[in-house]
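Example A, followed by Example B.
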Amino acid sequence: QLQLVESGGGLVQPGGSLRLSCAVSGATVEDYAIGWFRQAPGKEREEVLCMAASEGSIYYGDFAKGRFTISRDNAKNTVYLQMNVLRPEDTAVYYCVGGVVCFAEAYAYPFWGQGTQVTVSS
């Protein structure tokens, strides 16, 4: 059973940066597609980006291109979400997700972390 634990959320000013971590246990991080979704109050969950298993191809949600990146540390079995030039509209709960393949829909991911709050405000 894949288990995912996020950390690193918090309050950041507009224009700032934040790095979220997703500690993976129960499997090797390379064996699964690991990604990030987010959900803002009153809105649907949306894909942020995803790194495929094995070769690690990256798939981006439209808003994430140019500002957000994903990386994987195989030795630490951890995936990171680096967020730059943050905007108030990036305020949301961010979830680490795991599945067989990267896909833009939340239902494709059977494994979810508990979420971490990111608030972008001055």
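Example B, a separate protein, is given below in the same form.
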Amino acid sequence: QVQLVESGGGLVQAGGSLRLSCAASGRTFSNYAMGWFRQAPGKEREFVAAISGNSRRLYYIGSVKGRFTISRDNAKKTVSLQMNSLKPEDTAVYYCAASIQVYSNDAREYAYWGQGTQVTVSS
């Protein structure tokens, strides 16, 4: 069992930065791939980024490559998403999730989810 709690969301102007964090509880955190997803109003949940348990594999959706960076600290049981050069289209509720798979961009592979944190980017 893994419990996830996100933090770090907020309101920022376009071009600004935010850092999202996700704290996990439970054992064997390093066995789980971690992902970030987002859901904008009226849209389906969208994959953003994923990182394997040993941080060797990273995966980003094309629209955030070069702007977002996913990282993790297995000792602290945390995963972070550094978001730079934010755009209004990045506005969404952001969720972190844990998967027993090596890593995945498919939400169906993620068994554990946080409650989400709102990110709003104003133009």
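On Example B: Residues 94 and 117 are 5 Å apart (CA to CA).
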